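Good day; I would like, with your permission, to put a structural problem before you. What I wish to show you is a protein chain and, alongside it, a tokenised description of its three-dimensional fold. Here, with my thanks, is the record as I have it:
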Amino acid sequence: MLRENVLKINKIFHQYFSSQKILPILTIEDLVSCNYIQDIFLENGIKIFEITLRTNVALEAINFLAQNKNFIVGAGTLTNEKNVQSAVDVGAKFGVSPGISDELFQQCEKNNFPLIPGVSSPSEIMVSYNRGYEILKFFPAEVLGGIKMLKALQGPFPDCHFFPTGGINQDNANKYLSLSNVYGVAGSWMVPKYLLDQKDWKKINKIIKKVVSK
């Protein structure tokens, strides 16, 4: 696919994230949890979120929540062609990957499926950008140098914007968001897996309320 076509597809992210700069990442183990998550997100105005393909019910969870017209549900942990096709088939509106590969790019482009590719080096940024991807997942952010690294990337990559992921939390999220090349931040701290496993919806709701009030 021509770079111009990828750019056209990825303009959709400007619509998605114009009013929400924090992307919750969820790892869901059972479908019952989806009902509670749906209620909490609706109550707090969370419209966009990512569900990782790390559990046996992930695709079903995406399919269930994607049927709610208030939500824009993304599929995370895309690592191969099969992942991408499965995400498309169940109604995911976009994908997020931990890294990049030609196979992954080609399958997303074949399906006109918006992708936030994961990058961890200048070389991977160059490969992604030259293909048309300007909004990138910077992962794992804190391990790679965090804010200092992102500042260093501003010079050589002025047109690239990042979603730092990995080590982002309530304490440092706003520091990342203050950077001109940070498009938004993503993380599981908003809906921690241990609280999902405990089904502690009160605590999850409290965390989400704190996040959206910032």
About this structure: The chain has one domain: 3-213. The domain at 3-213 is CATH 3.20.20.70 (TIM Barrel).
